[in-house]
Amino acid sequence: MEGTNTDKTMKKTFILLLTLMPILVHAQEDAKPWKYQMRFGWGGYPVTESVGYTWSWCDCGPRDVNLQDIYWDNEGPLYTTGAISAEFAWLYKDWFTFALTTAANITWQNSFDAVTGLRSGTQTGGMLYIVPECRFNWVRRDLVKMYSSVGIGGLIGKDMDNDMAILPVFQVNPVGIEIGRKVFGFCEIGIGMMYTGAMAGVGFRF
Amino acid sequence: MIATGLIACSCTLSNGNSSGHTAHNLEEYTRTMFINNVVFPAGAVNMLVMLDQYISATEEERQSDAFQWHRENIFHEDDVTYMVRGFGTVHTYGTSFLDPQSDWTLDTGIEVTRIGDNCWKLKQNYIYDYNYNSTVTFVGQNEDGKNVFTVEAYNTHEARTSAYSDATVKATITTPEGSMTLTDPRPLHNYHNNRTDIPEGYGVFRLDTERHGKPLDWAELRYDQSGKTLIFRSNL
After folding, report:
1. In chain B, whose CA is at the least distance from the CA of A196?
2. What is d(CA A177, CA A146) in angstroms, rounded to the nearest whole number?
3. Is the dihedral of CA B193, B196, B200, B206 positive or negative?
4. Which residues from chain B sit within 8 angstroms of residue A53, using beta carbons?
5. DSSP code for B36
6. Over the stretch B107-120, which tens digit does the pLDDT of each residue have?
7. For residue range A111-121, what is the model confidence (pLDDT) as tens digits?
8. Burial, B37: exposed, middle or buried (Cβ in 10 Å; 0-12, 13-18, 19+)?
């Protein structure tokens, strides 16, 4: 008899919670204080630049050493800033954010005289990424949010050979976290042409 | 921490390349220039001399071991035109190559101009890095029946050294002791694939480089006493 009464109580409690759930969520949404947010971040690895500048697309095979092979400038390391981003987002729903992310990546490489070792010149390149993103917030606490996002956009820039580059960009960030209220820090893992690896930074909501 | 590490790794995309200004590269280039400016021209004249010797031989002589290579590699196109395998087509005009009045021509892109007794100037300039302008003299046959030649080489090459300026480096190729002597040279491409399989010889080949009129490097190939090995020296 006692066991039966306990089961019935649990069942009623469960049905009550299910009934109240939409009301609780709706109440949480009505309490949302922020409408927009801005974020500033820095991330890497810059896959697009790496593929464009460091992969060898020529299967040229062995050939005789010529005069230019001996005396042409040596190339120093190829440096990059990584993706430096700024984002404006519309906190449309508690579970959904629409963001417009822009990021810039500058690359540069010094050349050195083969005989004297003195710097002979510097090549530079820069890419600007513009990627609208849809962000799905699946943990929504007062202090902590976790999300996944996907974005499709484009890049425009000048590559290291002074040629213009215009390309589509696809970016998936499977998991990210924001910690804070009005002012917050964030970190996310990403796979895509803007960066593959991680990005971190700060933001504020208003 | 993982995120910070990934971000930190984004600063260097590649380590650049190492200098090409090395003794190894200078040796490779010098050996290529020796083959292009000394061996190829001497080999071209040797082909013509060997063709001439074959044409001049009797039918019985042509069947001997001394003419085995000729039988396998020389083909008649007509009475005055022959094709030499690995070399090209030669027009003899019915004369002997060693005849002072002869004027053989080649369909190989090589110009052969008689400038003296058994002495010819050879030029090839349709492939820049492989051009030459050498003087080849047929000395005669040694005791083994092989043709012996002397070669005087002089050539220059220039190349830009930077994408940021018009500065060039100039290489000057010479045979500083007058000429080199080669025995049975062939103008075949196997010399590029096997740098140790060079014709026997004697003498010195030199390469000097300069930029803005100032000397940069020098390199030298000298046959050793056996005449079978070229010893390389340079300032690097």
Report:
1. B6
2. 4
3. positive
4. 13-14
5. I
6. 878 888 999 989 99
7. 999 999 999 99
8. buried
| Inter-chain CB pairs, A–B, below 8 Å | 138
Task: Collect all residues of chain B within an 8 Å Cβ-Cβ radius of residue A67.
Answer: 29, 157-159, 169, 171, 209
Q: Answer yes or no: are the C-beta atoms of B197 and B177 closer than 8 Å.
A: no
CB atoms within 10 A of CB A77: 13
Calpha distance B156→B207 (Å, rounded):
9
Q: What is the pLDDT of residues B124-157, one digit of tens each?
A: 766 656 678 899 999 999 999 899 999 999 999 9
Residue A99 has pLDDT above 90, yes or no: yes
CB-based contact B4 A200, cutoff 8 Å = yes
Distance, in Å, from the CA atom of B50 to the CA atom of B58, rounded to the nearest integer, reads 14
Q: What percent of chain B has pLDDT over 70?
A: 89
State whether ipTM is beyond 0.90.
no
**With the C-alpha atoms ordered A133, A139, A140, A146, is the resulting torsion angle positive or negative?**
negative
Contacts of residue A77 in chain B, CB cutoff 8 Å? 12-16
Using a CB–CB cutoff of 8 Å, tell me whether A70 touches chain B: yes
